[in-house]
Design brief:
Two copies of one chain form a homodimer. With 144 residues, chain A is of the alpha+beta class. Chain A folds into two domains: 7-72, Winged helix-like DNA-binding domain superfamily/Winged helix DNA-binding domain (Arc Repressor Mutant, subunit A); 74-144, no CATH class. The first copy, chain A, has helices at 7-15, 21-28, 32-44, 68-71, 74-87, and strands at 48-53, 61-66, 96-100, 107-113, 118-119, 125-129. In chain A, the strands form two sheets. Chain A has a two-stranded antiparallel ribbon with strand order 1-2. In chain A, strands 4-5 form a two-stranded antiparallel ribbon. The radius of gyration of chain A is 19 Å and the shape is globular. Chain A starts with 6 loop residues before the first helix and ends in a 15-residue tail after the last strand. At the A-B interface, helix 1, helix 5, strand 3, strand 4 and strand 6 of A face helix 1, helix 5, strand 3, strand 4 and strand 6 of B. The structure holds a DNA duplex (30 and 30 nucleotides).
Amino acid sequence: MVGEKWSLLVLREAFLGVRRFADLQRALGAPKAVLTDRLNSLVAQDLLARVPYRDEGARQRHEYRLTERGRDLYPAVVALMQWGDRWLAGDGVPPLTLEHRGCGEPVSLGLRCAAGHDVGGPREVVATPSGRERAGETADTPAG
Amino acid sequence: MVGEKWSLLVLREAFLGVRRFADLQRALGAPKAVLTDRLNSLVAQDLLARVPYRDEGARQRHEYRLTERGRDLYPAVVALMQWGDRWLAGDGVPPLTLEHRGCGEPVSLGLRCAAGHDVGGPREVVATPSGRERAGETADTPAG
DNA sequence: ACGCTGGGTTCGCTTGACGAACCGTGCACA
DNA sequence: TGTGCACGGTTCGTCAAGCGAACCCAGCGT
């Protein structure tokens, strides 16, 4: 659903507060036609909403704002950003630090279980489809 | 980098312990040619490694295992899975619950700041490129 | 010698991404 | 009253990527 080339990038910009077509285009460098298409499908999927706005002394236009469904993708986007900051540092794009509004401390994303333990990675996790056993794949020792 | 259509799907299966070409192809339904291509580029990007194995009474073959770089994408994949379980439930694919190995409690992904506060969403976060101010976009009230 | 299996490659077609050019509405200014 | 401009698109032709079906090859068991 977010597998098309620009979808996640558009959402990332949306999370950073970019809402206008031209700003998105500038920020991403995507061709207009593709951006139009991607925005339309994000709207169709109810990840973005097209809302009218008007600047002082300008005609009415539309901007694209996150819906609840779209906002809920925030962790996924942050996870990818953190990965990029960790592994792709120095590729031209400076890392982006996220700070908790008010408290000012850096924000990070972590996996933890209901008992409060931090989870380090896929090895510490067992996946079961809705409680039942997963059929006999090679799944007993994941992710090595 | 993970924007090609199947990359994240391949990684998801990898996190679930699927390592073999044929199993990946069965699980994903991707055409062989595309899967080959995707696996090669994931290997080239050092997200997967191609390691030899041999089953009893079979010839030596290769399987694809996550590298550290690849394993580090786990939070991103989990985030997308949780999003899917929340918003796409009932679309045929049953949700997958992740349990902490040993403790048995369900695992979930959360955003929190260094002071220990849970962060609810993009509104509670201020993004700054490596500490400096972001240029005058429309970024003062993000993600509405 | 033969066939089976896993892991591919090749082929022809369709779909998507791309940049450049064009369009149309409505404001500002002359 | 007309001209220019900016935003937000659409259209067009080209080129890359995704697709299913068919084919291929190494090596094992029989």
